[in-house]
Amino acid sequence: MEQVYVAGKRQKGNPSFSTLSRPANLPNYQRQDWSDPTRKHACLGNGVIGLRLGGIPFRDAQVLVNGYIGRDAATGLESQTFAPFPLQADIVIHTDTVCRLSERPELIHIHKQSLDVAFGELTTSFTFGPEGHHVHVEVVTFCSQVIPTACCQEIRLKVDRPLMVELEAIMDPTALPGQCLERFRFQSKMDTVLLWESRGSMTTVGAGFFTEVAGLDEYVSRQNNWGNELDQCLCTHQLKITPGHNVSLRQYGVLTPSTKQDEPHIATIHMLHHIKDVGFDRMQYENRKAWLELWEGRPVIEVSCVSNVGTLQEYADSAFYYVHSSIHRSSPLSIAPFGLWGIDAANAYSGHVFTSDCEYYTYPAVLLTNPGAARAILDYRTRQIDMYHRNALAAGQDGLLIPNQTCLLGSNISRMDAVGCLGASAFKNHFVADAFLQYANAHGDEDFLREKAWPILKGTADWMVSRVTLTERGYKVHNLYINEQYGDTQNEPPVSRAFQRMLLAASDMAEKLGKRPRPQWRNIAQNMVILTDPEDLRRETSWYEPTYKAFTRATNREDLIKEMQGLSGVPISAIRPIKAALDMGHRDLTAQWWPDEVASKYIPQWFGMWREWSTKWSSGGRAYPFQQDCFVTFAGHLLKQLLIQFPQLNINSPDPMSWPSKPVTLPHGWAAIHVQRIWIQDRPAKITAEHGRHADIQWLD
Q1: pLDDT of 283-317, one tens digit each?
Q2: Which of 59, 64, 230, 247 could form a disulfide with 50 if both were Cys (CB 3.0 to 4.6 A apart)?
Q3: How far apart are CA 586 and CA 543, in angstroms?
Q4: Distance (Å, rounded) from C-alpha 30 to C-alpha 607?
């Protein structure tokens, strides 16, 4: 259907972008590798929507939505699955012939693509068209931090001579797994909405877009609503553009998963109407403002004699961007190791939530800087508590069994060949319980402690009771796998200490809440066998086996250097020796480890993106050397060190002034770490962690 539109007046009260001050020295990454322009290097996200975009962002795109899950075709397990792309577009130039961008890639000349992490915006500029009929194009794309189900894009056009140009807004899901259940067209509003169902009918997503033209008083628009368009949605705007006029197509996309709304297509319709009223300028302004507020929690490294301070700070800033683009207070399914940007589901862990990657590595990175996101991670666990109880019953155990890999339902979706199967990696239950305890101390009140934290901690303690055996020497942990990926059978000091600490914490919390603790908890904790003798360790554990470990074994500099060399090229673990070396006072080793190990191997050149990279690790049939980019877990681990571990914060009390546990030790050449603003119990504060002194926490209100 064809309609003629006359542009209306601009909204009153459009924002002034000059009021937003960009933080100093934040990266604005430029894409350098154009060997394959279609390769999707750029990652945008807000914790609900994740976009991977290529050289032409409205053509080369991949979309994942937090909470949109389908059945993996190969394994049959729950898995992230691609969603419709609501910002797809095409450009058609009418001269003597019709020249369509999607059909004539040889006529595209890309000038620049940059990712401004300060605002979470991708800007791409290119020229397209036959000789003498070029269109100069600039595209700005972002995912909204304020309305997390929304993403926006503006395609700006300039011409050197009068041209007839068509801008097509498209949403074509026909190549995606799944099927269309409902389709809505609203002619007067030019809206298009689909209800798309994933493979296996596990979830649905409401996907829709709205477009408007800015810079022209009159233009012709039409839709493909003649009844033979199948699932593809198309809205075309025919524009007469003359030199000196700036014309743009503004696209608003909404993606609502059924894990957030029972009728996601209806919610998408309502949200499209809302953001239409808000307008592009206000959406962009509010998104930038939200990012600037997040950046106040950025760890800033102050150095005394290191020449590569800019590089060190860039590592921290890139980590901050990718973590905070991956989790939001509205995220229904927590955070996956590769966030919302895994290209290959098999090598990106299918978007599963790992207890180690999530609660141990990434959660501490947002605990004080983005409490809403931290709470979303915990709410995910709370919603699945009934399934964790059923997991334990199925394994003949008590309490809660939290598998290392979960997704939509909370059941165990570890690899089918995982060692230990249902019991695999259940040792990591305490990572989840620890996260609830830390949140209660940092932000919670007694209601949170009683209604949220207590059921998790009690269930963990009850499970631990069913996993110990009484021996002549005391209680020992039996038949426990620390990680189903590696098959390491563990009966080692860190495991025993974790059991001891959780059982005592459960007893203390019960007494604080006026409940009666189980007598076994404190009895087992007080009589737990913790091996320290080297001969006992060699005989009864795999402590000295040359395999991947979740903890540091070295006790002197020589052993530490050997261990650092052994962990080089092992995913995640390569960053562990930094903290271990600092605790042992070897500041020079940590200063050297950053550029030699972390930078050279884990940050590729495109957009400061962190990657999982290995030369020494094999798992799940994957052949190494291995490289998978945008490894959010690694970025989270780095932030955890800068925000929690280096400042020596032990969040074990509601009194934040007691958190600094000992003097700060920083790598050689580092003077301090500064955090302009964190949140503690709904109050703003700042942290200064100077080398050689206890970290200083000061209230800002």
Answers
A1: 999 999 999 999 999 999 998 876 566 678 888 89
A2: 64
A3: 23
A4: 7
Helix (H) or strand (E) holding 139: strand 135-143
What gap in Å lies between CA 160 and CA 239, rounded to an integer? Answer: 15
pLDDT tens digit string along 227-250? 445 567 888 999 999 998 889 999
131 and 225, same domain (yes or no): yes
Q: Tell me the C-alpha distance between 639 and 688, whole Å.
A: 15
Do 121 and 243 lie in a common domain?
Answer: yes
Q: Quote the CA–CA distance of 432 and 427 in Å, as a whole number.
A: 11
Q: What are phi and psi of 373, to 5 degrees?
A: -65, -40
Bridge partners (DSSP) listed for residue 644:
none
Six token digits for residue 330 = 């509205």
| Local structure of 233: helix, strand or coil | strand
Better pLDDT: 608 or 462: 462
DSSP structural state of residue 618: -
- Number of structural domains the chain divides into: 3
| Same domain, yes or no: 575 and 631 | yes
Q: What is the CATH number of the domain that holds 546?
A: 1.50.10.10
Burial 616-650 (b: 16+ CB within 10 A, else e): ebebeeeeeebebbbbbbbbbbbbbbbbbebbbbe
CATH number at residue 163: 2.70.98.40
Separation in Å, CA 63 to CA 68, 87, 173, 255, 330: 11, 10, 11, 10, 17
User: Is 374 within the bounds of a domain?
Assistant: no
Q: Are residues 316 and 427 in the same domain?
A: no
Residue 106 within a domain: yes
Domain limit, last residue, from 551, 570, 594: 551
Interacting residues of 483 by C-beta distance below 8 A, sequence separation 6+: 356, 404, 424, 425, 548, 550
Supply the range of the domain harboring residue 692.
Answer: 298-346+562-701
Quote the strand ranges of 435-491, DSSP E: 468-470, 475-477, 480-481, 489-490
Token pair for residue 359?
């609660």
Q: What is the pTM of this model?
A: 0.91
Q: What angle do CA 444, 448, 454 make, to 5 degrees?
A: 120
Nearest 5°: phi and psi at 678? Answer: -125, 175
Q: Which two tokens stand for residue 514?
A: 């006026």
Token duo for residue 127: 């020229």
**Closest-CA residue to 326 (of 526, 123, 46):** 46
Q: Is residue 528 part of a domain?
A: yes
The H-or-E segment that residue 99 falls in is strand 98-100
Residue the block writes with tokens 């860190």: 494
| Whole-angstrom distance, CA of residue 580 vs CA of residue 225 | 63
Together in a domain, 89 and 213: yes
Q: How far is 442 from 681, CA to CA, in rounded Å?
A: 6
Host H or E run for residue 302: strand 299-303
pLDDT of residue 570: 61
